[in-house]
Write a sequence for this structure.
Protein backbone atom coordinates (compact mmCIF):
# COMPACT_ATOMS: atom_id res chain seq x y z
CA UNK A 1 0.00 0.00 0.00
CA UNK A 2 1.30 3.41 -0.87
CA UNK A 3 1.76 5.58 2.18
CA UNK A 4 -0.31 8.73 2.32
CA UNK A 5 1.85 11.80 2.03
CA UNK A 6 1.81 14.32 4.83
CA UNK A 7 2.62 18.00 4.59
CA UNK A 8 3.90 20.17 7.34
CA UNK A 9 4.75 23.78 7.96
CA UNK A 10 8.46 24.50 8.36
CA UNK A 11 7.68 27.51 10.52
CA UNK A 12 5.30 26.14 13.11
CA UNK A 13 5.58 22.41 12.58
CA UNK A 14 1.84 21.79 12.17
CA UNK A 15 0.86 18.94 9.89
CA UNK A 16 -1.71 19.07 7.10
CA UNK A 17 -3.27 16.41 4.88
CA UNK A 18 -2.72 18.49 1.73
CA UNK A 19 -0.51 21.21 0.40
CA UNK A 20 -1.54 24.84 0.45
CA UNK A 21 0.23 28.13 -0.16
CA UNK A 22 -0.32 29.49 3.28
CA UNK A 23 -0.18 27.82 6.66
CA UNK A 24 -3.58 28.07 8.32
CA UNK A 25 -2.00 27.68 11.75
CA UNK A 26 0.69 30.37 11.77
CA UNK A 27 -0.13 32.31 8.61
CA UNK A 28 3.30 31.91 6.99
CA UNK A 29 3.40 31.89 3.17
CA UNK A 30 5.12 29.15 1.17
CA UNK A 31 6.19 27.32 4.28
CA UNK A 32 4.34 24.04 3.66
CA UNK A 33 6.45 21.19 2.39
CA UNK A 34 5.95 17.49 1.99
CA UNK A 35 7.23 15.41 4.83
CA UNK A 36 10.02 13.11 3.65
CA UNK A 37 9.04 9.46 3.62
CA UNK A 38 9.95 7.61 6.81
CA UNK A 39 13.58 6.56 6.58
CA UNK A 40 14.98 3.61 8.46
CA UNK A 41 17.79 5.61 10.05
CA UNK A 42 15.49 8.39 11.20
CA UNK A 43 13.86 6.42 13.98
CA UNK A 44 12.29 8.35 16.73
CA UNK A 45 14.55 9.18 19.61
CA UNK A 46 12.90 6.81 22.03
CA UNK A 47 13.52 3.77 19.92
CA UNK A 48 17.09 3.39 21.01
CA UNK A 49 20.27 2.88 19.04
CA UNK A 50 20.26 2.36 15.34
CA UNK A 51 20.06 -1.21 14.27
CA UNK A 52 17.89 -2.24 17.21
CA UNK A 53 14.73 -3.34 15.54
CA UNK A 54 11.21 -3.34 16.88
CA UNK A 55 10.99 -3.02 20.64
CA UNK A 56 8.75 -5.35 22.59
CA UNK A 57 6.81 -4.34 25.68
CA UNK A 58 8.39 -5.66 28.87
CA UNK A 59 7.01 -6.36 32.30
CA UNK A 60 7.47 -3.52 34.74
CA UNK A 61 9.11 -5.93 37.15
CA UNK A 62 11.72 -6.80 34.54
CA UNK A 63 12.82 -3.26 33.78
CA UNK A 64 16.46 -2.74 34.62
CA UNK A 65 16.80 0.10 37.09
CA UNK A 66 20.49 0.18 37.77
CA UNK A 67 21.39 3.76 38.61
CA UNK A 68 21.89 6.02 35.66
CA UNK A 69 25.53 6.86 35.18
CA UNK A 70 26.33 10.33 36.43
CA UNK A 71 29.48 12.41 36.34
CA UNK A 72 30.57 15.62 38.03
CA UNK A 73 30.85 18.79 36.05
CA UNK A 74 33.33 20.25 38.52
CA UNK A 75 30.83 22.94 39.48
CA UNK A 76 28.94 21.96 42.61
CA UNK A 77 26.23 24.52 41.95
CA UNK A 78 25.54 23.11 38.47
CA UNK A 79 25.64 19.52 39.73
CA UNK A 80 23.10 20.39 42.38
CA UNK A 81 20.68 21.82 39.84
CA UNK A 82 21.15 18.79 37.60
CA UNK A 83 20.20 16.58 40.54
CA UNK A 84 23.68 15.36 41.51
CA UNK A 85 25.79 15.64 38.37
CA UNK A 86 25.18 15.22 34.65
CA UNK A 87 23.54 12.00 33.49
CA UNK A 88 25.40 10.23 30.71
CA UNK A 89 23.35 10.15 27.52
CA UNK A 90 21.04 12.97 28.53
CA UNK A 91 20.14 16.11 26.66
CA UNK A 92 20.33 19.28 28.73
CA UNK A 93 19.05 22.60 27.47
CA UNK A 94 20.63 25.70 28.99
CA UNK A 95 18.49 28.74 28.29
CA UNK A 96 18.89 32.38 29.15
CA UNK A 97 19.10 35.89 27.80
CA UNK A 98 22.05 36.73 25.52
CA UNK A 99 25.10 37.77 27.49
CA UNK A 100 24.01 36.18 30.74
CA UNK A 101 26.90 33.69 30.74
CA UNK A 102 25.71 30.44 29.15
CA UNK A 103 28.76 29.97 26.94
CA UNK A 104 31.02 30.90 29.82
CA UNK A 105 29.45 28.29 32.09
CA UNK A 106 29.64 25.46 29.59
CA UNK A 107 33.17 26.27 28.49
CA UNK A 108 34.27 26.48 32.10
CA UNK A 109 33.05 22.99 32.98
CA UNK A 110 35.08 21.56 30.09
CA UNK A 111 38.23 21.75 32.18
CA UNK A 112 36.98 19.32 34.81
CA UNK A 113 34.96 17.09 32.49
CA UNK A 114 37.95 16.92 30.15
CA UNK A 115 39.97 15.12 32.80
CA UNK A 116 38.17 11.90 32.03
CA UNK A 117 36.01 12.53 28.99
CA UNK A 118 36.41 13.74 25.47
CA UNK A 119 34.44 16.86 24.67
CA UNK A 120 33.37 18.41 21.39
CA UNK A 121 32.38 22.05 21.68
CA UNK A 122 30.49 23.16 18.59
CA UNK A 123 30.06 26.88 18.27
CA UNK A 124 27.99 28.61 15.66
CA UNK A 125 28.42 31.98 17.26
CA UNK A 126 32.15 32.46 17.58
CA UNK A 127 35.22 31.62 15.57
CA UNK A 128 37.68 29.05 16.85
CA UNK A 129 40.07 31.92 17.59
CA UNK A 130 37.51 33.73 19.70
CA UNK A 131 36.72 30.58 21.59
CA UNK A 132 40.38 29.98 22.27
CA UNK A 133 40.76 33.48 23.65
CA UNK A 134 37.78 32.98 25.90
CA UNK A 135 39.14 29.63 27.06
CA UNK A 136 42.41 31.36 27.91
CA UNK A 137 40.57 33.84 30.07
CA UNK A 138 38.78 31.00 31.85
CA UNK A 139 42.01 28.96 32.26
CA UNK A 140 40.57 26.12 30.21
CA UNK A 141 43.29 24.16 28.41
CA UNK A 142 42.11 20.57 28.58
CA UNK A 143 43.81 18.32 26.02
CA UNK A 144 40.50 16.46 25.67
CA UNK A 145 38.61 19.48 24.40
CA UNK A 146 37.95 19.68 20.68
CA UNK A 147 36.32 22.71 19.15
CA UNK A 148 34.47 23.13 15.92
CA UNK A 149 33.04 26.30 14.46
CA UNK A 150 30.17 24.96 12.37
CA UNK A 151 26.44 25.46 11.92
CA UNK A 152 25.49 22.70 9.47
CA UNK A 153 23.91 19.88 11.42
CA UNK A 154 25.01 17.14 8.99
CA UNK A 155 28.60 18.28 9.23
CA UNK A 156 28.36 18.36 12.99
CA UNK A 157 27.00 14.81 13.14
CA UNK A 158 29.77 13.76 10.77
CA UNK A 159 32.34 15.31 13.08
CA UNK A 160 30.77 13.51 16.02
CA UNK A 161 31.11 10.23 14.15
CA UNK A 162 34.78 10.96 13.51
CA UNK A 163 35.89 12.00 16.97
CA UNK A 164 33.25 10.14 19.02
CA UNK A 165 33.08 12.51 21.98
CA UNK A 166 31.53 11.64 25.36
CA UNK A 167 30.13 15.13 25.73
CA UNK A 168 28.84 17.43 23.01
CA UNK A 169 28.16 21.10 23.61
CA UNK A 170 26.11 22.94 20.98
CA UNK A 171 26.29 26.73 21.19
CA UNK A 172 23.67 27.80 20.26
CA UNK A 173 20.63 25.94 18.90
CA UNK A 174 19.48 29.11 17.10
CA UNK A 175 22.54 29.13 14.85
CA UNK A 176 22.34 25.49 13.76
CA UNK A 177 20.51 24.36 10.65
CA UNK A 178 19.66 21.15 8.97
CA UNK A 179 20.21 21.35 5.20
CA UNK A 180 17.17 19.15 4.56
CA UNK A 181 14.94 21.84 6.00
CA UNK A 182 14.36 24.90 3.86
CA UNK A 183 13.66 27.44 6.56
CA UNK A 184 16.16 29.82 8.10
CA UNK A 185 18.30 28.92 11.13
CA UNK A 186 16.50 29.93 14.28
CA UNK A 187 13.02 29.24 12.93
CA UNK A 188 10.84 26.88 14.89
CA UNK A 189 11.14 24.14 12.30
CA UNK A 190 14.94 24.26 12.25
CA UNK A 191 15.33 24.51 15.97
CA UNK A 192 13.07 21.51 16.49
CA UNK A 193 14.70 19.43 13.81
CA UNK A 194 18.22 20.12 15.09
CA UNK A 195 17.21 19.33 18.64
CA UNK A 196 15.63 16.09 17.50
CA UNK A 197 18.87 15.13 15.81
CA UNK A 198 20.80 15.88 19.00
CA UNK A 199 18.29 13.87 21.02
CA UNK A 200 18.82 10.87 18.74
CA UNK A 201 22.53 11.27 19.24
CA UNK A 202 22.16 11.36 23.02
CA UNK A 203 19.80 8.40 23.27
CA UNK A 204 21.39 6.40 20.50
CA UNK A 205 25.10 6.76 21.19
CA UNK A 206 25.03 7.76 24.85
CA UNK A 207 26.66 11.13 24.20
CA UNK A 208 25.80 13.69 26.85
CA UNK A 209 24.59 16.77 25.02
CA UNK A 210 24.38 20.30 26.36
CA UNK A 211 22.46 22.69 24.13
CA UNK A 212 22.48 26.44 24.57
CA UNK A 213 19.31 28.34 23.67
CA UNK A 214 18.82 32.07 23.76
CA UNK A 215 15.67 33.48 25.25
CA UNK A 216 14.73 36.87 23.94
CA UNK A 217 13.17 39.53 26.07
CA UNK A 218 9.79 39.24 24.34
CA UNK A 219 9.37 35.65 25.44
CA UNK A 220 11.19 33.51 22.94
CA UNK A 221 9.63 32.90 19.53
CA UNK A 222 11.93 30.10 18.46
CA UNK A 223 13.68 29.88 21.76
CA UNK A 224 13.95 27.20 24.40
CA UNK A 225 10.21 27.25 25.11
CA UNK A 226 9.38 25.22 22.02
CA UNK A 227 12.02 22.65 22.96
CA UNK A 228 11.18 22.06 26.58
CA UNK A 229 9.09 18.97 25.94
CA UNK A 230 11.82 17.34 23.84
CA UNK A 231 14.78 17.47 26.19
CA UNK A 232 15.60 15.76 29.50
CA UNK A 233 16.51 18.84 31.51
CA UNK A 234 15.80 22.51 31.06
CA UNK A 235 18.00 24.88 32.99
CA UNK A 236 17.45 28.62 32.93
CA UNK A 237 20.21 31.03 33.67
CA UNK A 238 18.81 34.24 35.09
CA UNK A 239 19.91 37.39 36.77
CA UNK A 240 20.24 41.02 36.05
CA UNK A 241 22.94 41.61 33.46
CA UNK A 242 24.05 44.71 35.30
CA UNK A 243 24.37 42.80 38.58
CA UNK A 244 27.02 40.15 38.90
CA UNK A 245 24.71 37.63 40.59
CA UNK A 246 23.48 34.78 38.35
CA UNK A 247 20.92 32.17 39.31
CA UNK A 248 20.61 28.83 37.56
CA UNK A 249 17.36 26.96 38.00
CA UNK A 250 15.84 23.83 36.55
CA UNK A 251 12.32 24.10 35.18
CA UNK A 252 12.31 20.51 34.04
CA UNK A 253 14.44 17.60 35.14
CA UNK A 254 13.80 13.98 34.26
CA UNK A 255 16.54 12.91 36.67
CA UNK A 256 16.00 15.07 39.72
CA UNK A 257 14.07 17.78 41.45
CA UNK A 258 13.34 21.17 39.95
CA UNK A 259 13.48 23.08 43.21
CA UNK A 260 17.20 23.56 43.51
CA UNK A 261 18.97 26.71 42.43
CA UNK A 262 22.63 27.31 41.72
CA UNK A 263 24.10 30.71 42.44
CA UNK A 264 27.08 32.18 40.64
CA UNK A 265 28.85 35.46 40.37
CA UNK A 266 30.31 36.72 37.10
CA UNK A 267 33.91 37.71 37.71
CA UNK A 268 36.76 38.73 35.39
CA UNK A 269 37.94 35.17 35.03
CA UNK A 270 34.53 33.60 34.56
CA UNK A 271 31.75 32.36 36.82
CA UNK A 272 32.49 31.87 40.48
CA UNK A 273 30.27 29.59 42.54
CA UNK A 274 28.49 31.04 45.52
CA UNK A 275 27.87 28.10 47.84
CA UNK A 276 26.54 30.45 50.49
CA UNK A 277 24.09 32.78 48.71
CA UNK A 278 22.66 34.40 51.84
CA UNK A 279 25.83 36.35 52.47
CA UNK A 280 25.92 37.70 48.95
CA UNK A 281 22.22 38.54 48.88
CA UNK A 282 22.51 40.48 52.11
CA UNK A 283 25.74 42.27 51.30
CA UNK A 284 25.27 45.97 50.80
CA UNK A 285 22.08 45.98 52.81
CA UNK A 286 21.33 49.50 54.06
CA UNK A 287 21.59 49.90 57.83
CA UNK A 288 18.93 51.50 59.96
CA UNK A 289 16.73 52.43 56.99
CA UNK A 290 12.94 52.15 56.75
CA UNK A 291 11.43 49.82 54.15
CA UNK A 292 13.70 46.79 54.26
CA UNK A 293 13.11 43.46 55.93
CA UNK A 294 14.94 40.11 55.89
CA UNK A 295 13.26 36.73 55.62
CA UNK A 296 14.36 33.18 54.95
CA UNK A 297 13.04 31.25 51.95
CA UNK A 298 13.65 27.65 50.94
CA UNK A 299 15.28 27.30 47.54
CA UNK A 300 14.97 23.56 47.09
CA UNK A 301 16.69 21.93 50.01
CA UNK A 302 18.61 25.06 50.90
CA UNK A 303 17.48 27.90 53.13
CA UNK A 304 18.41 31.30 51.72
CA UNK A 305 18.16 34.66 53.44
CA UNK A 306 16.55 37.30 51.28
CA UNK A 307 15.99 41.00 51.64
CA UNK A 308 12.63 42.47 50.66
CA UNK A 309 12.43 46.20 50.09
CA UNK A 310 9.32 48.33 49.90
CA UNK A 311 8.63 51.94 49.12
CA UNK A 312 5.29 53.48 49.98
CA UNK A 313 4.89 57.14 49.21
CA UNK A 314 1.92 59.38 48.59
CA UNK A 315 1.05 59.35 44.94
CA UNK A 316 1.28 62.05 42.32
CA UNK A 317 -0.99 60.20 39.93
CA UNK A 318 -4.74 59.84 39.67
CA UNK A 319 -4.41 56.13 40.19
CA UNK A 320 -1.60 55.07 42.56
CA UNK A 321 1.20 53.08 40.97
CA UNK A 322 1.98 49.59 42.23
CA UNK A 323 4.77 47.35 41.03
CA UNK A 324 6.53 44.30 42.34
CA UNK A 325 9.83 42.86 41.28
CA UNK A 326 10.90 39.35 42.30
CA UNK A 327 7.62 38.86 44.14
CA UNK A 328 4.28 37.75 42.73
CA UNK A 329 2.31 40.89 41.85
CA UNK A 330 -1.09 39.56 42.85
CA UNK A 331 0.26 38.29 46.14
CA UNK A 332 1.81 41.71 46.79
CA UNK A 333 -1.50 43.45 46.09
CA UNK A 334 -3.30 41.04 48.38
CA UNK A 335 -0.83 41.76 51.17
CA UNK A 336 -1.23 45.49 50.64
CA UNK A 337 -4.99 45.10 51.01
CA UNK A 338 -4.56 43.08 54.21
CA UNK A 339 -2.21 45.74 55.52
CA UNK A 340 -4.79 48.40 54.76
CA UNK A 341 -7.73 46.58 56.29
CA UNK A 342 -6.14 44.66 59.18
CA UNK A 343 -3.00 46.65 59.81
CA UNK A 344 -4.76 49.98 59.98
CA UNK A 345 -2.66 51.74 57.32
CA UNK A 346 -4.42 53.98 54.84
CA UNK A 347 -2.74 53.01 51.59
CA UNK A 348 -5.45 54.19 49.19
CA UNK A 349 -3.47 57.24 48.14
CA UNK A 350 0.03 55.77 48.16
CA UNK A 351 2.21 54.34 45.44
CA UNK A 352 3.63 50.98 46.47
CA UNK A 353 6.76 49.35 45.11
CA UNK A 354 8.07 45.99 46.26
CA UNK A 355 11.46 44.62 45.33
CA UNK A 356 13.46 41.50 46.17
CA UNK A 357 17.20 42.07 46.11
CA UNK A 358 19.67 40.07 44.04
CA UNK A 359 17.55 38.65 41.20
CA UNK A 360 15.82 36.15 43.47
CA UNK A 361 12.17 35.37 42.73
CA UNK A 362 10.23 34.64 45.89
CA UNK A 363 7.35 32.29 45.43
CA UNK A 364 6.71 31.22 48.98
CA UNK A 365 4.07 32.35 51.46
CA UNK A 366 6.65 32.23 54.27
CA UNK A 367 7.90 35.58 52.96
CA UNK A 368 4.50 37.29 53.36
CA UNK A 369 5.21 38.78 56.75
CA UNK A 370 8.50 40.26 55.57
CA UNK A 371 6.73 41.97 52.66
CA UNK A 372 4.04 43.29 54.99
CA UNK A 373 6.54 44.62 57.51
CA UNK A 374 8.76 46.18 54.85
CA UNK A 375 5.70 48.03 53.52
CA UNK A 376 4.57 49.07 56.99
CA UNK A 377 8.07 50.21 57.88
CA UNK A 378 8.28 52.35 54.75
CA UNK A 379 4.81 53.78 55.32
CA UNK A 380 5.54 54.71 58.91
CA UNK A 381 9.14 55.68 58.13
CA UNK A 382 10.42 53.60 61.02
CA UNK A 383 13.37 51.26 60.38
CA UNK A 384 13.17 47.57 61.25
CA UNK A 385 16.13 46.48 63.46
CA UNK A 386 19.06 45.30 61.33
CA UNK A 387 19.47 42.07 63.29
CA UNK A 388 15.85 40.92 62.91
CA UNK A 389 14.43 38.27 60.58
CA UNK A 390 10.75 37.50 60.14
CA UNK A 391 8.92 34.39 58.93
CA UNK A 392 5.24 33.76 58.41
CA UNK A 393 2.43 33.33 55.95
CA UNK A 394 -0.27 35.99 56.18
CA UNK A 395 -3.94 35.07 55.85
CA UNK A 396 -6.76 37.32 54.69
CA UNK A 397 -7.80 38.17 58.24
CA UNK A 398 -4.27 39.25 59.01
CA UNK A 399 -3.50 36.09 60.99
CA UNK A 400 -0.05 34.53 60.81
CA UNK A 401 0.20 30.93 59.74
CA UNK A 402 3.07 28.61 60.41
CA UNK A 403 5.78 27.88 57.86
CA UNK A 404 7.31 24.56 56.86
CA UNK A 405 10.89 23.51 57.60
CA UNK A 406 11.19 25.94 60.47
CA UNK A 407 14.23 24.30 62.11
CA UNK A 408 16.28 24.50 58.94
CA UNK A 409 15.45 28.15 58.45
CA UNK A 410 16.15 29.00 62.06
CA UNK A 411 19.61 27.48 61.95
CA UNK A 412 20.47 29.41 58.79
CA UNK A 413 19.26 32.61 60.45
CA UNK A 414 21.33 31.96 63.57
CA UNK A 415 24.38 31.05 61.48
CA UNK A 416 24.37 34.54 59.97
CA UNK A 417 24.43 36.23 63.34
CA UNK A 418 20.90 37.57 63.48
CA UNK A 419 19.76 38.27 67.03
CA UNK A 420 15.98 38.04 66.85
CA UNK A 421 13.31 36.30 64.85
CA UNK A 422 9.57 36.79 64.61
CA UNK A 423 7.58 33.66 63.85
CA UNK A 424 3.87 32.80 63.91
CA UNK A 425 2.53 31.61 67.30
CA UNK A 426 3.56 28.01 67.80
CA UNK A 427 2.02 25.27 69.72
CA UNK A 428 4.08 25.09 72.92
CA UNK A 429 7.52 23.61 73.04
CA UNK A 430 7.97 23.04 69.35
CA UNK A 431 11.07 25.02 68.67
CA UNK A 432 14.48 24.87 70.27
CA UNK A 433 16.07 28.26 69.63
CA UNK A 434 19.82 28.23 69.02
CA UNK A 435 21.94 30.24 71.42
CA UNK A 436 21.98 33.98 70.81
CA UNK A 437 18.73 34.05 68.84
CA UNK A 438 15.68 35.49 70.57
CA UNK A 439 12.42 34.17 69.22
CA UNK A 440 9.33 36.37 69.31
CA UNK A 441 5.91 35.05 68.50
CA UNK A 442 3.06 36.95 66.91
CA UNK A 443 -0.48 35.82 66.19
CA UNK A 444 -1.34 38.38 63.55
CA UNK A 445 0.19 41.23 61.62
CA UNK A 446 -0.86 43.85 64.20
CA UNK A 447 1.08 42.04 66.90
CA UNK A 448 4.10 41.69 64.63
CA UNK A 449 3.95 45.39 63.75
CA UNK A 450 3.69 46.49 67.34
CA UNK A 451 6.68 44.32 68.26
CA UNK A 452 8.99 46.29 66.03
CA UNK A 453 7.30 49.48 64.87
CA UNK A 454 5.52 50.40 68.08
CA UNK A 455 1.78 50.85 68.48
P1 LIG B 1 28.53 34.70 27.60
O1 LIG B 1 28.89 33.44 28.26
O2 LIG B 1 29.17 35.00 26.29
O3 LIG B 1 26.97 34.86 27.46
P2 LIG B 1 25.94 34.00 26.61
O4 LIG B 1 26.65 32.84 26.05
O5 LIG B 1 24.88 33.64 27.62
O6 LIG B 1 25.38 34.91 25.57
O7 LIG B 1 28.87 35.84 28.65
C1 LIG B 1 29.06 37.08 28.20
C2 LIG B 1 29.19 38.11 29.28
O8 LIG B 1 29.96 37.71 30.37
C3 LIG B 1 29.86 39.29 28.66
O9 LIG B 1 29.08 40.42 28.92
C4 LIG B 1 31.20 39.35 29.31
C5 LIG B 1 31.01 38.62 30.58
N1 LIG B 1 32.21 37.88 31.02
C6 LIG B 1 32.84 38.24 32.17
O10 LIG B 1 32.47 39.19 32.85
N2 LIG B 1 33.94 37.52 32.59
C7 LIG B 1 34.41 36.47 31.88
O11 LIG B 1 35.39 35.84 32.29
C8 LIG B 1 33.73 36.10 30.67
C9 LIG B 1 34.21 34.96 29.84
C10 LIG B 1 32.64 36.83 30.27
MG1 LIG C 1 27.21 32.63 24.02
Amino acid sequence: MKEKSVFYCTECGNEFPKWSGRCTACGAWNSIVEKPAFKEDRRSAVQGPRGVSLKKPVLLSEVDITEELRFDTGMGELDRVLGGGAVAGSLVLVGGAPGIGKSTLLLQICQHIGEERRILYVTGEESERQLKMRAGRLSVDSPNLLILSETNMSDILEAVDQVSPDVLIADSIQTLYSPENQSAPGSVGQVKECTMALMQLAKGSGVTVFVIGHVNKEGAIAGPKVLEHMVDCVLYFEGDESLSCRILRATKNRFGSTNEIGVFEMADHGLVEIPNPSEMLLSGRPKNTPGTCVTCVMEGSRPVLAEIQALLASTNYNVPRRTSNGFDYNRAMLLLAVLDKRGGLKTGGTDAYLNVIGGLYINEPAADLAAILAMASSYRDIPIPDDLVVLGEVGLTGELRSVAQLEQRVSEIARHGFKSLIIPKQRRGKLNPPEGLRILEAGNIREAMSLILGA
About this structure: The longest strand covers residues 302-314. The two ends are 85 Å apart (CA to CA). The CA atoms of residues 169 and 206 lie 14 Å apart. Confidence is low (pLDDT under 50) at residues 39-48.
